[in-house]
Structures are given as structure tokens and as C-alpha cells.
Write a structure and sequence with these properties.
Number of helices: 8
Number of strands: 19
Number of domains: 2
CATH class of the largest domain: Alpha Beta
Distance between the termini: 63 Å
CATH architecture of the largest domain: 4-Layer Sandwich
């Protein structure tokens, strides 16, 4: 029997933190497409159940398109049972307020709910879940009751923690779940895939999100597929990569470059070695030290590279390199200006370098933007 574990889809997320309005709108559609692609996979591979471990939606204000995509995805796949546990973002999900809940949609509440997935099988598969809040977060560990003869999947949404305090309801104390008869702990809340042992019998897993929404979510994204042998209770665990786009955060050292053109060539050479697909998103940070009289135009660099990827933004973290000995005996206006700034005790080294750089630009007749 095959079961999908997914979480943190955040459908209808605004996506405007990094992207301009047109591309943010496109990414919102792609989040819905990712959900549909997962359903296509489930149909093709005869998946019996899909566990959604929280944050299916980003807020309670979901668009008609997102609501229809999810609702129709459920009712048009009656052969798949959806086990939906709400997270901190979708506590007011419209699915909870439906006048008629589809037969193949099972939900959870603030008390443990237990669902048997495979009626009549030799080795019963049980899915248990509870939605955390300030009232129940301290008591859920003692109240969990599982039959150790079953294959037990427990679903929670929250942050793994060493201890639980009442004012942090989303914390999950993993130690308190050890030796409870759990076989697989299906978690949501962390947006990167992670799987580790819980105890001798159990593993715990964050499925991550189907699609990254920012550069803090770089890496591979998709969902987890469990293939359970209903005769033996053994299972296979696979991470299915399916992200439409990826976020890449890279750093390139441009030390020694004297001009925007040289910097651009350094960036090109670096990107050729990285082979980042054009459909992905790139955050490129420039580092290193540049000569104080170097010419550097970050806006021009952004314009040069922004159309090479779905989204590309270049950030400048370089420092200006200033050799005092080079200017200490230069009896020119430039030398006097540099020495005067260097003697100012109230300025930091970075502030001095920035002032000197602007001053040299002004002496060359350049416009400071």
C-alpha cells in the first residue's frame, strides 16, 4: 500500500518578497500546479492515501482558484483518501467549514483522531493525528494510545524541540514520543526535507514543501512516498523530487576587479561552472576586496544578468581595499583627501572606505547615485 506524506504547500502565498508582481502571480499558479502534479503521481502509482501535515494554505483568505483546485482535486479522486491536519497558517481552512465533507477527506482536531487505512488487511495501518494548541500541547504525549501490533503513522505539525512550554504550542517534544509504538512520524512545519530515527522502531520525517517560496528554502523539494507491505509491516521510504523551480543562493569572490566589465566576466565564469537552469531563481552575493579606485555598478550588473534566469538579483557585500602607504606621500588633492579621511577617529574602517570611494568618484567627475 502506498501513502504520500506532504506538508507546507502554503497555497495562495503572496510570493512578493523576492519577486515582482507578474512573476509572483505566476509562482502562485505554480504552487497549485505542484499540488496537481502530486495528484497525477498518486493516480499513476495507485497511491491509496495522502497525508497533508499542515499548512495546506498560507492564510484563511484563499482565492476561488485555490479553493476549487483543492476541493476538486479531492472529490475527483475518490480512490484516494486525504488525511488533512491543519497547521498554524491554515487553522481557519475553508475545508473545515464545508457543509458536506467529502467521504474521502478525513480531518483532525484538538483530540487524538485515529483512522484505519486498510480494512481487512493482515497488518493494519493506523493514522493518528492531533492539532496542537495552547490547551493540549502539554498533554498530547500521555494521551496518545497506539496498538503496537499495527503499523502506526502519527501526524503532527510543529517544530521539534527538547522541551515543550505552554506558550509555544507548536513545539513537539520528540523524546516524549519515543517507544510509543510509532512506526513513522509524519511532520509538517519545517520547509526542508529531513528524516531521522526517533527510536529503535520509528523514524520521524519533515516532508518539506512542494515548492520553495524564498532563498531560505533552497535545495530539493517534493514529497515522501511510503510503500508499506501489509503482510509484514515493513515499508520503503522514498523522497520524490518534483519542484518546478529551485532557489539558488551563491557567492562569488570578485577581489581585484577594477571595473564593472571585469566583474561581469568574473560572474559569467562562475555561473558557467555552476550550470544553474534558466528556469530557476538566483541570489548572487559579491564578496572580496576591490581597489579603492575601482568602478563598480551593481544596478548595471543586475540589468545584465536578470533575464538569464526566472529571477536573478545581485547583492554587493564587497569591501574597499585601501593601502595607506600608497597615498601617504602623494601630494595631490586625492592624496590629501584620503589622508584627511583616514585621520578621522569617529569613523569606522568601512565608513572611511565608503567616503573615500565616493570622494574619488567625485574627483573623477562621476555622478554618485
Amino acid at each position: 500500500m502506498k501513502i504520500i506524506h506532504t506538508a507546507d504547500l502554503h497555497l495562495d502565498s503572496k510570493m512578493t518578497t523576492h519577486l515582482p508582481p507578474d512573476k509572483a502571480r505566476q509562482r502562485r499558479r505554480e504552487l497549485l500546479t505542484a499540488f496537481q502534479k502530486m495528484l497525477d503521481f498518486a493516480r499513476q502509482h495507485e497511491v491509496k492515501a495522502i497525508i497533508i501535515a499542515g499548512d495546506l494554505f498560507d492564510t484563511k483568505n484563499t482565492s476561488a482558484l485555490a479553493r476549487n483546485t483543492v476541493y476538486e482535486g479531492i472529490i475527483m479522486n475518490p480512490q484516494i483518501t486525504f488525511y488533512y491536519l491543519k497547521g498554524n497558517h491554515d487553522a481557519d481552512s475553508f475545508l473545515s467549514g464545508l457543509e458536506e465533507i467529502p467521504d474521502n477527506l478525513k480531518m483532525f482536531g484538538d483530540q487524538w483522531a485515529y483512522y484505519q487505512v486498510n480494512e481487512g488487511s493482515d497488518h493494519k495501518v493506523m493514522i493518528a493525528g492531533i492539532e496542537l494548541n495552547f490547551e493540549n500541547s502539554m498533554e498530547i504525549y500521555e494521551s496518545l494510545q497506539l496498538d503496537s501490533q499495527y503499523f502506526n503513522i502519527v501526524v503532527l505539525h510543529g517544530q521539534e524541540a527538547e522541551a515543550v512550554v505552554r506558550d509555544r504550542a507548536e513545539n513537539i517534544k520528540l523524546k516524549a514520543l519515543k517507544n510509543k509504538g510509532i512506526d513513522y512520524l509524519a511532520l509538517g512545519h519545517i520547509h526542508r526535507y529531513k528524516k531521522e530515527k526517533l527510536d529503535a522502531r520509528a523514524s520521524y520525517c519533515y516532508a518539506g514543501c512542494l515548492e520553495a517560496r524564498g532563498f531560505d528554502e533552497s535545495g530539493e523539494h517534493g514529497f515522501v512516498l511510503l510503500d508499506i507491505n501489509e503482510k509484514t509491516g515493513e515499508y520503503q521510504h522514498s523522497f520524490i523530487k518534483q519542484a518546478i523551480r529551485k532557489f539558488h543562493e551563491k557567492t562569488v569572490d570578485i577581489s581585484g576587479c577594477f571595473s564593472t566589465g571585469q566583474i561581469a566576466e568574473q560572474i559569467k565564469a562562475f555561473l558557467e561552472t555552476e550550470a544553474i537552469p534558466a528556469e530557476d531563481m538566483l541570489k548572487l552575493t559579491l564578496t572580496g576586496e576591490l581597489p579603492i579606485d575601482a568602478e563598480k555598478d551593481i544596478d548595471m550588473l543586475n540589468r545584465q544578468f536578470r533575464n538569464d534566469y526566472f529571477f536573478c538579483k545581485i547583492y554587493d557585500k564587497t569591501k574597499w581595499q585601501l593601502d595607506d602607504k600608497e597615498y601617504e606621500k602623494e601630494w595631490t588633492l586625492r592624496g590629501e583627501f584620503i589622508r584627511t579621511v583616514q585621520k578621522e577617529s569617529l569613523l569606522s574602517a568601512d565608513e572611511k572606505a565608503q567616503i573615500i570611494q565616493y570622494g574619488l568618484m567625485a574627483l573623477r567627475g562621476e555622478v554618485i547615485e
